[in-house]
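Aim 2 progress update. The chain analyzed this quarter is reproduced below.
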Amino acid sequence: MKTILCLTVALTSLIPQQLRAQTYTFTPVPEWVVNMDIPSESSVSKYDVLSGYYLTLADYQINLDEEAVFNHEVINVSSYGGITNASQLSILYDTNYQKLYIHYLYIWRKGKKIDRTSDLSLEIMNHEQLLNQGIYTGQITAYDILNDIRKDDMIDFAYTLVGDNPIFEGEKYLFIPLEQLNPVDLFSVRILYSKDKDYIYKCVDCDSLRFTALVEGNYNLIEMIHENAKPIHMEDFTPSWCITYKHFILSSMSSWVDVNTWAQKVFHLDKEPILDPVFNEIFSGEETMEEKINKIIDYVQNDIRYMGIESGIGSIQPFPPEQVVKQRFGDCKDKSLLLVSLLKSIGIEQSYPALVNTNIQHEVENLFPSNQVFNHCIVRFDFTDSSYWVDPSFAQQGGDFRNLYSIDYGKALIIGIPADTLNLMSPRRTESGTDITEEFTITSFTEPAALTITSTRFGFDADQRRTVMELYTTKDITEFVAKDLGTLFPKIEKTEEVQISDDIENNQFMVTYHYTVGDFWIDGDKGTNEAAKGHWIFRFEPVLLYDYLKVKVCDERKSDFLLFHPTNLRYRVIFHFPKDLLVLDDFKVVDNRAYRFTEKVEQTGRNTLQIDYSLETKSKSITAESFKEICLQQNKISKGLPVIIYFTK
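Predicted structure tokens:
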């Protein structure tokens, strides 16, 4: 990863200026590049290919000294369905520090080479696909639609990108996958750098390919040749930190201390920021230190909106706090530096920005020390002998700073606390969860029943629900719930407006819904089952739980299985039936390495049945070795969830 990627917003007025500066040049292939022959034969079947095309040759050559990456791909159009996608060429780059050099475009048809280089007419387009999320990267795409492409053609295209973000101060980092989602006849990677450079590198799971590392003249040369590369097989719900494919990693930095030194320079302020306008706005003068901390965090999270410019060095270097206050927007690193500066201004000296990787998380150290392996910035500060983690990018977090929920990303680089290893986050585990009660009042076997649903969320669950509710109207939310109920009940009607209660101080968010549901009784006399005749039959399924306990195919896995963690759900269903009943109380529990699930069935009155479910996850994932056993347990739970009750007519 090349940037600290944070949610930002586009300043659209910049776009025309950027476009005017964007160019590309036609040049010969660089002299340092070695020609790779196109494989003459392929073992790939068109039925093994996604999207109707694949790479016969994937040739990538990198000159680290010249900050140049040569890309040479030969696209094999294996079916008619692949013509449309294969004939669209696109190159993504950042003109703040990169230059694009086009070398050639050939079409190989029935063994003959057709030179189409002069036909290339690349359009320069803004690559701002995330504008709806407020992300402006400054990147552009050079794009062309090729004419006259046919089935079995091979599209032979080569270009070089030169330049690296100057904010990295010449430090190098490579992470290169050596497999793709499609098969590749020949996957070749060649890397050059001066022989006096002592870079660290490793090739992971590379036993089946040819790997060479040697000194050739004045250069270190690394070559990887992967013939008949099989496609990556990505299992469903594989955690983002599990890299399940062959890959190569290289770094010019050998110590996390060096990375920390670099980060301190990037986040350094030449002078102490003047933040009196903030304090004048948020303080009354009577606050305790704890109240000041809370108000500062609230200010940065909520009053400084989540916006920014992720272009060039701005993708890494934060804006000065005074500028962020003035413009009242910033991305994760801007807001983190502002929060640290505000905390230090009130005497919390041990306040630090911290870099994390939200995808790789606790496995980030396996990527080697580098200033290019992080993608998010948060804050750690110490107060009264305790450490606290805060994500300034979160908005509308409730509660006191002592119990703010912080996602545990595993490992973090705390800027200003140099160490040979990354710091274990260990955020304070504040209680979070959801309590849901559904109460059915059924007075007749033929008339609709009243249903009241109350959900109470606390901790991080309350934070998330508070955000969701700001994005939708109460009408939308009511309809979403009614749609879910529609899987069980043929007739659903809202009887009252949704009621919302938000106790942000104690971080509890409560929503209450009111419906009538009808036509859910089954008349046994109208069916073919003789045993059901003379009965009214009630069937209930806790649909809410199926989102967590879906029936799965319990095959052996090669990768771990991702869990929705943390999950802390307490779900109660109460039925008031029109006739007395007799039900034996029951209690079931499943407790394994992944979660604890309980189901308690209890008759609480002559005509009242209450079922309590609870589900609490224990970890972020299930190991591949444990998956099948736990999966079978989960399927057994799910299949046993439906409740069927017979009432004699």
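The two ends are 68 Å apart (CA to CA). Confidence is low (pLDDT under 50) at residues 1-22. These observations will guide the mutagenesis experiments scheduled for the next reporting period.
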